[in-house]
Amino acid sequence: MPAFTRRDFVRFIGAGVAVVGTPRLLALDRQKAIKKALAKRDRAVLVHDNWVRDPYVALGKDGWYYYTGTMQSPSFVENEETRNNTGLGTSTMVSSMVRLYRSRDLVNWEGGDPIASLEDTAYYKKFAAKYDQTPAKRRNIWAPELHQREDGRWAIIFTVPQPLAPDFGAGHLLSVDSKLQGP
Fold first, then answer.
1. Cys bridge to 58: 96, 133, 146, 164, which one at CB 3.0-4.6 A?
2. CA 13 to CA 33: how far, in whole Å?
3. pLDDT tens-digit profile of 170-179?
């Protein structure tokens, strides 16, 4: 029998669905549990293990589901305090980039790469001095959304909290074509 931890042995999916088994079986059971919960269409379903607030999923014209939200910075180190965080405040966990995952079935996700940052906005060009004076941990993107236009191009919108707001306030970016990739 392969070695695995107790944490690997019992996983909780969504609201109380326990999955028991080896890591490989866990992955298969987890996929089945997610598909079953999605089919019911009666509650929110945890489809991704990464920390995220304000999740946003959009179905593209190419048949892929695209997923983003307020996400952790890659340099973020999780600890007990931040794991139980219920408010964003001025934490160092939020990223200054819009990260993107994609899936064909809402169960198996790939990606996580940054596709946009505050430095890609027109606001950055206009308020670069204020941005550069702001500590990196306070350069946050909150609640990004993805919207595909009729012509296939993608609009990315998000909010920016203090201290960059109200100068930055929000961001709006438009892709050059139908590919949702960055920069």
1. 146
2. 7
3. 888 899 899 8
Contact 172, 146 (CB under 8 A): no
Answer whether residue 26 shows pLDDT above 60.
no
Q: How far is CA 35 from CA 11, 31, 100, 107, 112, in A?
A: 16, 6, 21, 7, 21
Residue 69: name the closest of 91, 90, 50 by CA: 50
The rounded distance, in Å, linking the Cα atoms of 63 and 105 is 10
Domain borders along the chain are 1-46, 48-174
Here the tokens at position 113 are 């790469």
Q: Radius of gyration over alpha carbons of the chain, in Å?
A: 18
Cα–Cα distances (Å) from 85 to 1, 47, 63, in that order, read 36, 20, 35
